Amino acid sequence: MKTQVAIVGAGPAGLMLGHLLHNAGIDTVIVENKSRKYIEERVRAGVLEQGTVNAMIDSGVGDRLLKEGLQHDYIDLRFNGEPHRLNIKELSRGRSVWVYAQHEIVKDLVAARVGYDEPLYFEASDVSIHDIDTDKPSVRFIHEDKEQLIDCDFVAGCDGFHGISRGMIPEAELRVYDRQYPFAWLGVLADTPPASQDVIYAYHERGFALQSMRGPDISRLYVQCPVADTVEGWPDERFWREFHARLEISDGWHQQEGPIFQKGITGMRSFVCEPMQYGRLLLAGDSAHIVPPTGAKGLNMAIGDVQIMTRALTSYYQEGKRDFLDKYSDTCLKRVWQVQRFASMLCYNLHRFPEHNQFEHKMQLAELNNIAHSRQAMRAFAQSYTGLPVELFYDLE
Ligand code: RFL
Ligand code: PHB
Q1: What is the DSSP pairing of strand 154-157 with strand 281-283?
Q2: How far is the centre of ligand 1, averaged over its atoms, from the C-alpha of 11 (Å)?
Q3: What DSSP string runs through 42-75?
Q4: What is the fold of 5-72+97-178+269-352?
Q5: Which of 72, 89, 103, 289 is flagged as catalytic?
Q6: Alpha-carbon distance 102 to 49, whole Å?
Q7: Contact by Cβ (8 Å): 286, 339
Q8: Given 172, 191, 226, 368, which residue has the most CB atoms within 10 angstroms?
């Protein structure tokens, strides 16, 4: 088969790219190695920046998000036994964040694609990418026991951190920046209303904790744990004990317990590969970069990348111009490093590091106090948390 852009991976990056290119009249084929059920149930991100929400609404897939998403104008930072409620909407001059689960976005985008009947192959095996350094790249895979070949103009590598795309860039051309953190997050979904409407980030001597939600009756809760821990080592009673200890402080706030129906442990890393393009291969999302989840940025970065890629490809196909395309990697990376800076700063200041002493603990508290009390620092925080608009990065030098 022939198409203009072959997209490897049907996560948020690949599906949103397919959708934006469809709206621009550019043909795509999406190839995904998991099943539709699997990707529509995979529990991951929850917090969407204003720019991600706008991208969903403006491109015609925001109806359910507008109905079911929860708009948040505040967040709560808890440390030193005190809550600090920040009005992020006012501080960022009108931008909010929204809580709407990543797998709901995936469902909305799959439904849109199935609706306009463009090719999306699930459960593809042996996916491989060829000839990206020529004008005629291709993607091969096996689907329902048949070998398939896609001849295309470009390959979009949207296949996440463990995908195959990044590895297609020759080693001599690829630079990798990587940091792994000495802790993980234990995350649960619990059948109980969240005690607060706000997302709460807590720094406590026992470690980080986070309260979020998935609608009015379901809580999404996390606690920092050692990297080597397993879910079996965290029976529900232990989770609740730790969660209460880290979040329940001077203001009498109390989270009602409820049945836990999902539990998982996520390692934390910061990772960037440069460049994000090589020949006719363009990378987007987790295939090119990972952030620790503290800033809630991974999915939002993926959506930013594919907006930049859409502009590059639209300008190439509709105006015959290569300048946006040639600068795709540079434009994305400016934004990626700014977001890495914010996510690393939050990750550093909100977690207990095994090797840290009391001096570092005091420094973390000083940083958090600065965010909670200096108007300038608060503004900068709110601007990054609600998301740096993609448009800012076209003109940055
Ligand atoms: P994905 O979602 O990993 O999708 C990649 C897709 O590619 C498929 N694939 C292949 N397909 C074909 N051939 C191959 N060889 C393939 N190899 C892989 C995979 O099956 C998959 O379907 O990457 P994408 O699209 O770049 O999206 C990135 C986001 O998923 C990720 O950054 C976020 O989930 C990160 N994240 C958060 N991001 C936020 O913006 N806000 C949050 O609140 C937030 N919270 C989180 C998070 C991630 C978490 N975990 C579990 C890692 C909370 C957690 C706990
Ligand atoms: C979530 O709701 O899953 C969530 C919220 C905030 C974060 C990360 C994840 O920083």
Answers
A1: parallel
A2: 6
A3: -----EEEHHHHHHHHHTT--HHHHHH-EEESEE
A4: FAD/NAD(P)-binding domain (3.50.50)
A5: 72
A6: 12
A7: no
A8: 368
pTM across the whole model: 0.96
Going residue by residue through the chain, which has 397 residues, state the pLDDT in tens, using 9 for 90 and above.
999 999 999 999 999 999 999 999 999 999 999 999 999 999 888 899 999 999 999 999 999 999 999 999 999 999 998 999 999 999 999 999 999 999 999 999 999 999 999 999 999 999 999 999 999 999 999 999 999 999 999 999 999 999 999 999 999 999 999 999 999 999 999 999 999 999 999 999 999 999 999 988 999 999 999 999 999 999 999 999 999 999 987 778 899 999 999 999 999 999 999 999 999 999 999 999 999 999 999 999 999 999 999 999 999 999 999 999 999 999 999 999 999 999 999 999 999 999 999 999 999 999 999 999 999 999 999 999 999 988 888 864 4
Cα–chain center distance at 80: 29
Given ligand 1 and candidates 299, 307, 384, which is best to mutate, with the most ligand atoms within 8 Å of its CB?
299
Q: β-pairing, 125-130 with 138-143?
A: antiparallel
Alpha helices in the chain (DSSP H): 12-23, 36-41, 50-58, 63-68, 88-91, 102-115, 236-247, 298-319, 323-326, 328-350, 358-373, 375-386
DSSP secondary structure string for all residues of 301-362: HHHHHHHHHHHHHHHHHHH---HHHHTHHHHHHHHHHHHHHHHHHHHHHHS--TT--HHHHH
CA distances from 95 to 301, 359, 389 (A): 17, 35, 11
- Torsion region of 395: left, alpha or beta (phi above 0 gives left; psi -120 to 50 gives alpha): alpha
Which ligand places an atom closest to the C-alpha of 202? 2
Provide residues with CB under 6 Å of ligand 1.
8-14, 31-34, 39, 44-47, 102, 124, 127, 158-160, 163-164, 185, 187, 266, 285-286, 293, 296-300, 302
The Cα–Cα gap between 74 and 72 comes to: 6
Token digits of residue 271:
């990772």
Q: Using the 8-state DSSP alphabet, how is residue 120 labeled?
A: E
CA 248, CA 368: separation in Å to the nearest integer?
Answer: 18
The answer, yes or no, to whether the previous bond of 275 is cis (omega within 30 of 0) is yes
